[in-house]
Amino acid sequence: MSNYNPWRLSVAPMLDWTDRHCRYFHRLLSQHARLYTEMIHVGAILHGGAERFLRYDEAEHPLALQLGGSEPRDLAACAKLAEQWGYDEVNINCGCPSERVQRGSFGACLMAEPALVADGVKAMLDACNIAVTVKHRIGLDKNEDYAPVRDFVGVLADAGCQTFIVHARNAWLKGLSPKENRDIPPLRYAVVHQLKKDFPALTFATNGGLQTNAHIAEQLEHVDGVMVGRQAYHHPWDLTTWDATFFGAAPFTRSRDEVELDMVAYMEREVARGVPVLSMARHMLGLRNGISGARAWRQVWSDHKRKALPPREIHQQAMEAAALYRVGD
Ligand SMILES: Cc1cc2nc3c(=O)[nH]c(=O)nc-3n(C[C@H](O)[C@H](O)[C@H](O)COP(=O)(O)O)c2cc1C
């Protein structure tokens, strides 16, 4: 365990991306980064089978479960399950702007209902002994006033929430796709810094648009933590610098080939349980970004014609393709 606060640096929850295979891969690259599940709807967990949605590998710790939902009783039941399954934290999504999620009355639209979220937080804290945290935006639609987000945090803090992960953009609930909602509303990090000033005893992590270690370090001058999403997914090798740079740990010494071989061993175990190989391999396609042969290597690992081959054979073919590419450079 490091001496740093648990939210110092994390990989963001990303639907369809940060599944357990992705998290296993990320954990090979950083021992200390906190990892989050994708948002999982409370109904899926309670009625669709906890095993299917909550299973993970022990190596993934420290690990947080992110919930989509708003009904306090359901949130509490899932928080209890999260603790039973050994998660280190349970997080409520108050930042997703998708129309489907709005129709379900959770995600970003919950920022307009702090009292309901506060009831959820209280019910979850009563039901479990792990950290209950909230991930949210800095406002809704075009309203850039500070008071609503300050009051949102204040109400949840009164309910017992001590940690806030703040995507430093408004969520525009109408007219933008979820993807556009991650790029178009302007980033306003100063709002997160102001929250930390106004609530110094609470833990705040900044999220949104952070790409380099310099960006991360700059945020850490103002807040307790940083959460990185797309950059971490597309450029996973960045994670290998995190433990030494941000957690005072020894430099990462393993090679990309060694990491890939660890993933091959993992995929062999999972294939034996019926998991399709390419559904796991897709998360590591950024492993060799920026390196000669990366494209050829990636093409082999994403080639559907090879989906029935054993992982080790695909690995060998990918390495050969990358080496061949180098010869022809
Ligand atoms: C493909 C994708 C799926 C996402 N799914 C979730 C999600 O399930 N829960 C959530 O809180 N945020 C989700 N997000 C938002 C990210 O967690 C993060 O807030 C956002 O991408 C901004 O951070 P970044 O600029 O570092 O990527 C998703 C983002 C992407 C790209």
Architecture per CATH nomenclature, i.e. the level-2 architecture of the largest domain:
Alpha-Beta Barrel
CATH fold-type name of the largest domain: TIM Barrel
Name of the CATH homologous superfamily of the largest domain: Aldolase class I
**Radius of gyration, Cα only, in angstroms?**
20 Å
**What fraction, in percent, of the residue positions are helical?**
40-55%
**What small molecules accompany the polymer chains?**
flavin mononucleotide
- Give the overall pLDDT as a whole number: 96
Description:
The chain has 329 residues and is α/β, with parallel strands linked by helices. It folds into 2 domains: 9-247, Aldolase class I (TIM Barrel, Alpha-Beta Barrel), CATH 3.20.20.70; 256-327, Four Helix Bundle (Hemerythrin (Met), subunit A), CATH 1.20.120. Helix content is 43%, strand content 14%. The protein is built from 15 helices and 10 strands. α6 runs parallel beside α7 and α14 (294-301) packs antiparallel against α15 (311-327). The chain starts with 8 loop residues before the first strand and ends with a helix. The structure holds flavin mononucleotide. Flavin mononucleotide is lined by residues 12-17, 38-39, 66, 93, 95-96, 135, 167, 182, 207-210, 228-231. This is tRNA-dihydrouridine(20/20a) synthase. Keywords: Flavoprotein, FMN, NADP, Nucleotide-binding, Oxidoreductase, RNA-binding, tRNA processing, tRNA-binding.
